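TA notes. Do not distribute before section.
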Amino acid sequence: MRRSNGFTLGRRVALLGVLAAGLPAAQACGPLVAGLSPYGRLLYRDAQGREVGIDADVIQALAEHSGCTLDSQVISRNGVAAGMARGSVALSPSTIASAERAALGELWPYARSPMVVLLPRDQAQRWPQREAFDRDPTLRLVTVRGHRHGEDLDAWVQALRAQGRTTEVGDVPAALRALRTGRAQAFISVAVAVGPDMDDLAAMDWDRSGGVVGHLWVGHHVPEAERERLRLALQAMLADGTVDRIFQRHLGATLARRTRLGRSARGA
């Protein structure tokens, strides 16, 4: 199994379903590297050792709708940004927009998610509000290098960092280990990523900005014709219900409804 800043998914998604997106079948597209990062229900390893989850399904559906060969690789979020900068990573799902990311590629919205702050469940009652957490200078927030959390929570991270109260790690599994071993007492997560393996953690609604929008991030270095092919494929996935079905399969109908974008946000 090849490695690229992490473990590869061990598969290349085939060219399928080109006509479903109304795209020309004869035109070659790819191979393009899709960078996916382990993160709860977005991407995790199942009992058979396969990397599965919402992001894996989105990339597979994108390949089927676009006819592009997409080589899915598990890469840290910081590694994805570095790969975008040097042209080795072409696209990445579940990306929160930022000026730095927009400078490297286009950002196409396809889902939204509330943001939550995860605390050890047996201690959560000690800090029912964010203000209670802020008042205790011994408490620390663990963050993942390269992650964004939306305007409100990013400002909170900066405030805690200025007080020397943050611990930075390389990926989400490391952040969860820090939380469970007591090196930190809080971690910010997109709500859609919180799964059954996090039952020991309490999800606190401390975000004051209404959540974030997840984008497909496609590098400027990807040829224009291939970018357009991917963009049309994503639009088709939103229009035909593919994106909805992926979220319903992993989240259930109630939470999946909260991931839907309004028509204006979709760019339709």
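Switch to the second chain here.
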Amino acid sequence: MIDRNSDNSYDIGSADGKHYIEDSEKNNIQDKVKSDGTENHGKETKGFKSAGARFMTGVSMGIFAGLFVVGVFAERPDYSESEKRSLAAVPDLTLVTAMNGDFFTDLNKWFSDTFPYRETLLDMESKLEHFYGVGGEAYYGNKIDVVEDTIPESAESLAPVIELQESSEEQETVDEYQELVETNADGTLKIDDSPRETVEIIGEQAGNIYVNNNKGYEIFYYNQGGSVKYASVINTIKARFPDKEVYDILVPNSFGVELDQALQEELGSGNMSDAFNYIFSLMDPGIRRLSVFDTMVEHKDEYIYFNTDHHWTALGAYYAYRDFCEEKGLTPHELSDYEYVDYPGFYGTFYFATNRSEELKSNPDHVEAWIPLGTNDILITNEEGEVFNGHVINDMTDAIAGRKYNCFINGDNPFTEIHNPRVTDGSSCVVIKESYGNAFVPYLVDHYSDVYVVDYRYYKDNLNTFILDRGVQDIIFLNNIQAITEKVSGEILSIFS
């Protein structure tokens, strides 16, 4: 025990009695105690840091080892639901590709493109981004690179008829047609039918996307060249089949219908209705032209467009069907005439293109459909040329979230045919379409003996020959406004060559 005395000395209790420590000795003791304490604390801290570093190193090595094992041994996906495309395949090793480095480049692409659990990891990334971000308005795309053309008030002349050239070459099924449509010296358009390299189709991709109030919109930018060439293609088909009824149905997307015009202009978009009017002014008056823009606006408060996908719904397609019936002189069926089905839990192109936006995730879609009265059976030819039976309206109860739009005519296939045993007048039509047409086709089934459906992005045969051989009466083009491009013009034109 240590006691301080009146003379500033200290008593240290011991078995022998008292010992005295002067102030100077006291200071030495205090310094020593402080020094020993600091030394011991430093050793403890150093030991703690060393243990923490070893622990973190071990954890990191464990994570990397786990990723290595998963990357090497786990099953790899071959299809991406989010991007709606086939993933990179394992490259073939040849002496040439090994020498020029292509094999290793492709191998690296395959390894990264098909990493196991990629969809789950992407979903986790989206949740993390949402945690750090804010809700409300969002923009996805390359807005800075977009320059919209000015929409003319009216056409000074009709779009030129294109010179169709017969080709014995197998038609390509690609979505790259940069030079497919060319201009002759006199200003008319011609087809370049030289053989081309086949390029893999990667599926539909939404372009510049605007998200607001938990709903996605694909921004429309008018393109003058695409408009003129599209009209030229339709004029060409009418000139090729003057005795056939040729219909062109242009469909607006949700951006042009549901958003205020001032907001559309703020986002750099032109007036979609004006674009429709101008495109139709380029067409031969003998073409039955249907702009369903006003009809869609009339019903814009209804569920006519999906929240998370760029397509219209079956209800939107139904209102367009009624316009078609009025133009053709048919009596449309009421929705109550059909059997109704509904498949919840649909997430579409906008959801995946925005890296699984949490705003869109909170507003999922449902796919509703109405089954035709006469038949629900179809015959499908896929890209491999295989023919199999299917349904006009497919049961999507067990389908994954990204594929429920395949409810309609089994999705996008090169060729589909529907024969209605209840209609025996020999009437027939061919619908030349992109995926917007899928939801429209079911309503035609009960008005024709035969309905043929061609997706111009994948069709390989000559449609000229088919129309003549089958005696098809009505030729129906159906495209949404985003498809009015030079590329699409080439794709459509190629199936008639």
